């Protein structure tokens, strides 16, 4: 099967749904054992990680939601609450990849008592200052004004600069990304990407001191060749959490390490979850 066909087959096999305030939330549930809530990146469709998730689901209960075009961080937090309640999960490891790392930091602040450990993969600190709000508002306005096809083409161009996949599979992966962007995601999804970030800033959901009562460990996974990562991230995280965080080097696996080398990525996660 092609990559796209594997994504579609995975979705049909594992998809579940909850409805919250008239919004359908699709998520994928695999396996049993210690629970992991996996928050995917900016392409908004968790099934892109089908190979990684099927392997991780061999030994863990894995919950991985898609993202509908909602407008507030509160809607995300309420949805994760509803999904975890529906599955009877009271405690879990919280993992956020890329854009999902921002959502994970907000959810930890919302529900710290349930999170055993936090793993942030290819993601930066989410305590954005108010100075970022005009930027988010400008991007939202631009997305609403530009033709939808132009918006999607710009996103596709940006993805090619950060997506890391095996070279022999790159064409298939890019075809799958393009199919999802052109046929599955809407202008509303792109607006939501920035609107939720703006709402997080307005609500001041993440800031130094918000995690004072949380006693779990934080792990930061980053790749040496990931253009989205900064050397300033680790000291910034230390300030945000008010204590040391553990850095995990993913070598040259890039921004989407779970696609580039799913087996090695799982090995890293397993090592962290045993610590």
Account of the 3D structure:
The mean pLDDT is 94. The chain is of the alpha/beta class and 275 residues long. 47% of the residues lie in helices and 17% in strands. It has one domain (3-273): Alpha/Beta hydrolase fold, catalytic domain (Rossmann fold), CATH 3.40.50.
Helix content: 40-55%
How far apart the termini lie comes to 37 Å
**At CATH's second level, what is the architecture?**
3-Layer(aba) Sandwich
Number of domains: 1
Mean pLDDT: 94
Topology (SSEs and partners):
Elements: H1 3-14, E1 15-20, E2 23-30, E3 35-39, H2 50-56, E4 61-65, H3 73-86, E5 92-97, H4 99-110, E6 115-121, H5 133-145, H6 148-162, H7 170-184, H8 187-203, E7 217-222, H9 233-241, E8 246-249, H10 257-260, H11 262-273
Parallel strand pairs: 3-4, 3-5, 5-6, 6-7, 7-8
Antiparallel strand pairs: 1-2, 2-4
Report a brief summary of the structure:
The chain is of the alpha/beta class and 275 residues long. The protein has helices spanning 3-14, 50-56, 73-86, 99-110, 133-145, 148-162, 170-184, 187-203, 233-241, 257-260, 262-273, and strands spanning 15-20, 23-30, 35-39, 61-65, 92-97, 115-121, 217-222, 246-249.
């Amino acid at each position: 099967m092609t990559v796209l066909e594997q994504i579609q087959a995975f979705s049909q096999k594992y998809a579940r749904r909850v409805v919250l305030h008239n919004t359908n939330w699709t998520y994928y549930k695999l396996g049993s054992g210690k629970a992991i809530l996996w928050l995917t990146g900016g392409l908004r469709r968790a099934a892109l990680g089908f190979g990684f998730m099927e392997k991780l689901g061999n030994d863990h209960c894995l919950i991985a939601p898609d993202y509908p075009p909602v407008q507030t961080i509160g809607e995300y937090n309420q949805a994760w609450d509803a999904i975890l309640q529906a599955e009877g999960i009271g405690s879990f490891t919280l993992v956020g990849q890329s854009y999902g790392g921002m959502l994970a930091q907000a959810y930890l602040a919302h529900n710290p008592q349930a999170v055993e450990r936090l793993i942030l993969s290819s993601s930066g600190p989410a305590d954005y200052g108010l100075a970022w709000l005009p930027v988010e508002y400008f991007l939202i306005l631009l997305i609403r004004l530009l033709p939808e096809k132009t918006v999607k083409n710009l996103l596709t161009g940006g993805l090619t600069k950060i997506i890391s996949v095996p070279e022999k599979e790159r064409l298939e992966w890019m075809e799958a990304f393009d199919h999802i962007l052109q046929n599955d995601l809407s202008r509303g999804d792109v607006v939501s990407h920035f609107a939720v970030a703006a709402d997080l800033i307005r609500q001041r959901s993440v800031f130094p001191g918000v995690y004072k009562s949380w006693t779990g460990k934080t792990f930061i996974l980053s790749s040496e060749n990931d253009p989205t990562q900064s050397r300033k991230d680790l000291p910034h995280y230390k300030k945000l959490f008010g204590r040391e965080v553990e850095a995990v080097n993913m070598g040259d696996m890039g921004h989407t390490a779970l696609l580039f080398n799913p087996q090695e990525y799982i090995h890293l996660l397993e090592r962290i979850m045993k610590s």
